C-alpha cells in the first residue's frame, strides 16, 4: 500500500485595481476648490491628494470607456497568470469607478478572454474596497489575499481589514506608475549629489 503526501489546498484571491494598475486610462479627476478655481489630477495624483475644505470632485472621466487607454503589460500579464493558475473565479478587478461595464469592455478588447468578476465600488474611499474584499474573504474562506493597487491608502485599508480575519494571510503590492518611479530615481540622484 502506497501512502501519498497529504496536500493542503490553499485558497487564494487575487485583486487588481483598474486605473494605473492594469490600465493607463488617461482619466483625470476634476477638482473644484471652494474658491471656484479648478484643476485636473491624474488618478495616481488623486491617490495621494489631501482634499481641501470646500473641494468638490468630478469623476466623469472614470465613467466612460478609456479613449486613450493603454494596458500596463506587467500587471495585466500577472492577472492573466493568476487566472490561468488559480481560475477566473479567484481573480477580481476592483475599482473606485462605478461603471464596471466599460472596464470589462476595455479589458476584453485588449485580450481578457475569461469571465472574471469586475467590481466598481463607485467611491474613492479606501474603506469601500476594504469592505468588499473582507466580505468576499468571509463568504468564500480564502486563506491568502493578494492585492495590487497604485493607492497606498487602498493597499493599507484592505490589508487592515483582511488581517483581522483569522486564518487569512495578506500580501499587498503598491504598484508604482512610471511617473512615480522616475520621480523616486530623480530624488535619489539629487540626494546622492548633495550628500556624496
Number of strands: 10
Strand order of the largest sheet: 8-7-1-9-10
Structural class assignment: alpha/beta
Level-2 CATH architecture: 3-Layer(aba) Sandwich
Q: What is the class in the CATH system?
A: Alpha Beta
| Sequence of secondary-structure elements | EEEEHEEHEHEHEHEH
Straight-line N-to-C gap: 68 Å
What composes the largest sheet? 5 strands, parallel
- Described by the principal axes of the CA atoms, the overall outline is globular
Number of helices: 6
Helical proportion, percent range: 25-40%
Fill in the keyword field for this structure.
196 residues, alpha/beta, Rossmann fold, three-stranded antiparallel β-sheet, 6 helices, 22% strand
Topology:
Elements: E1 12-16, E2 23-24, E3 28-32, E4 38-42, H1 43-46, E5 56-58, E6 70-71, H2 73-86, E7 91-95, H3 100-109, E8 117-120, H4 126-140, E9 144-149, H5 152-163, E10 169-174, H6 178-195
Parallel strand pairs: 1-7, 1-9, 7-8, 9-10
Antiparallel strand pairs: 2-6, 3-4, 3-5
Helix pairs in contact: 4-5
Structure summary:
This protein is α/β, with parallel strands linked by helices. The chain has helices at residues 43-46, 73-86, 100-109, 126-140, 152-163, 178-195, and strands at 12-16, 23-24, 28-32, 38-42, 56-58, 70-71, 91-95, 117-120, 144-149, 169-174. Strand 3 and strand 4 (38-42) form a beta hairpin.
Would you write up a description of this structure?
A hairpin with a 5-residue loop joins strand 3 (28-32) and strand 4. The radius of gyration is 19 Å and the shape is globular. 37% of the residues lie in helices and 22% in strands. Mean pLDDT is 88; it is low at 179-187. The chain has helices at 43-46, 73-86, 100-109, 126-140, 152-163, 178-195, and strands spanning 12-16, 23-24, 28-32, 38-42, 56-58, 70-71, 91-95, 117-120, 144-149, 169-174. It is an alpha/beta fold. The chain starts with 11 loop residues before the first strand and ends with a helix.
Amino acid at each position: 500500500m502506497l501512502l501519498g503526501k497529504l496536500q493542503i489546498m490553499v485558497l487564494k484571491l487575487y485583486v487588481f485595481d483598474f486605473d494605473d494598475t492594469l490600465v493607463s486610462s488617461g482619466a483625470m479627476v476634476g477638482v473644484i476648490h471652494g474658491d471656484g478655481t479648478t484643476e485636473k489630477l491624474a488618478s495616481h495624483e488623486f491617490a495621494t491628494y489631501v482634499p481641501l475644505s470646500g473641494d468638490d470632485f468630478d469623476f466623469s472621466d472614470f465613467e466612460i470607456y478609456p479613449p486613450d487607454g493603454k494596458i500596463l503589460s506587467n500587471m495585466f500579464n500577472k492577472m492573466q497568470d493568476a487566472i490561468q493558475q488559480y481560475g477566473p473565479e479567484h481573480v477580481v478587478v476592483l475599482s473606485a469607478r462605478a461603471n464596471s461595464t466599460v472596464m470589462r469592455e476595455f479589458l476584453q478588447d485588449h485580450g481578457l478572454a475569461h469571465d472574471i468578476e469586475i467590481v466598481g465600488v463607485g467611491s474613492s474611499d479606501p474603506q469601500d474596497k476594504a469592505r468588499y474584499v473582507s466580505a468576499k474573504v468571509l463568504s468564500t474562506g480564502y486563506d491568502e489575499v493578494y492585492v495590487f493597487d497604485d493607492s497606498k491608502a487602498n493597499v493599507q485599508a484592505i490589508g487592515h481589514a483582511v488581517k483581522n480575519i483569522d486564518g487569512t494571510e495578506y500580501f499587498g503590492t503598491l504598484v508604482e506608475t512610471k511617473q512615480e518611479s522616475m520621480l523616486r530615481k530623480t530624488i535619489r540622484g539629487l540626494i546622492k549629489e548633495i550628500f556624496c
